[in-house]
Specification:
CATH class: Alpha Beta
Family: Belongs to the glutaminase family.
Subunit structure: Homotetramer.
CATH superfamily: DD-peptidase/beta-lactamase superfamily
Mean pLDDT: 96
Low-confidence stretches: none
Organism: Streptomyces rubellomurinus (strain ATCC 31215)
Number of domains: 1
Largest sheet: 5 strands, antiparallel
Bound molecules: 6-diazenyl-5-OXO-L-norleucine
CATH topology: Beta-lactamase
InterPro entries: Beta-lactam/transpept-like, Glutaminase
Strand content: 5-15%
Number of strands: 10
Radius of gyration: 17 Å
Order of helices and strands: HEEEEHHHHEHHHEHHHEEEEH
Enzyme class: hydrolase
Length: about 300
């Protein structure tokens, strides 16, 4: 696989999307991102690392953190997690409340905000510090000791977090949170507000390409558990656009409103693309285009 050539082609296609989509502004601290930034990185399972554009520039990880909370909650706590959160696509926006009411406070999947709040709650019970567990895992796998929560972004999320607070209280009313709502929200905002780069994320996400094995060769989870996480990423990782993402890209992937998407080529590599302009579902226009280009030119997808 000629990754430098593929990354160059993906960057050209992504840069041609200039002007399409809008930078997220419902969290005010995200609105200042340079809309034309673009970066992309690949980490292969045999230890090679490639990047183009702003691949080492930090951006707000946002919902990509939900991949790591899920992995850590399953690794530390096992399958019991699925009693409190489902694994079906929601077909609704990531911050929607509607299904919770008829579905007894059990969110559809771990990647919509409601489901991520439940997973954060369980990780908080398991570790005593959910956001710290995510931060430490990202630091260890990426080898970047400076990676941390951006306090300004976390505060901005909290100050404008009525929707997430409503979701958390509703879930708590169904006894599906084990910790106080305020603590769950604090950890949720703190892991969403971690500043990280395409470089860090491909290294941290590589355990899913290595079927559950970490960078140091130890095992975070079994092969079968890694397969399951990749499956939920494919069906739910890009919200109500998961069908379109699977159609265009053909890889398990997780997006965030900071404009990043981390995708996995099982057995081969982790790939991350970043551009702050988002489509209506909250997925980066440039990142989806870049990943589409990479899998189309290389013929390398899960299908
Ligand atoms: O809770 C929120 O709304 C944000 N912290 C995360 C949302 C997000 O990244 C959805 N992704 N596309």
């Amino acid at each position: 696989m000629d990754y430098p050539r593929l990354l160059a082609a993906a960057e050209r296609a992504a840069r041609a999307t200039t002007g399409q989509g809008r930078v997220a502004d419902y969290i005010p601290a995200l609105a200042s991102a340079d809309p034309e930034s673009f970066g992309m990185a690949v980490a292969t399972v045999d230890g090679r690392l490639y990047g183009v554009g702003d691949w080492e520039r930090p951006f707000s990880v946002q919902s990509i953190s939900k991949l790591f909370t899920l992995a850590l909650a399953l690794a530390h706590g096992g399958d019991g997690l699925w009693q409190g959160v489902g694994r079906e696509p929601s077909g609704n926006p990531f911050n929607s409340l509607v299904q919770l009411e008829t579905e007894h406070g059990i969110p559809r999947n771990p990647f919509i905000n409601a489901g991520a709040l439940v997973v954060t709650d369980r990780l908080l019970s398991l570790t005593g510090d959910a956001a710290g567990a995510v931060r430490d895992f990202l630091r260890q796998e990426s080898g970047n000791p400076l990676l941390d929560t951006d306090a300004e972004v976390a505060a901005s999320e909290a100050a404008h977090g009525h929707r997430n607070a409503a979701l958390a209280h509703f879930i708590a009313s169904h006894d599906n949170l084990h910790n106080p709502v305020e603590a769950v929200l604090e950890h949720y905002y703190a892991h969403c507000a971690i500043a990280t780069s395409c470089r860090d994320l491909v290294l941290a996400g590589s355990f899913l390409a290595r079927h559950g094995a970490r960078a140091d060769g130890s095992r975070l989870m079994s092969r079968s558990e890694a397969k399951r996480i990749n499956s939920v990423l494919l069906t739910c990782g890009t919200y109500d656009a998961a069908g379109d993402f699977a159609y265009r890209v053909g890889l398990p992937g997780k997006s965030g409103v900071g404009g990043g998407i981390l995708a996995i080529i099982p057995g081969r590599a982790a790939v991350c693309a970043w551009g702050p302009r988002l489509d209506r579902a909250g997925n980066s226009v440039a990142a989806v285009t870049a990943l589409d280009t990479l899998t189309t030119l290389s013929g390398c997808s899960v299908f």
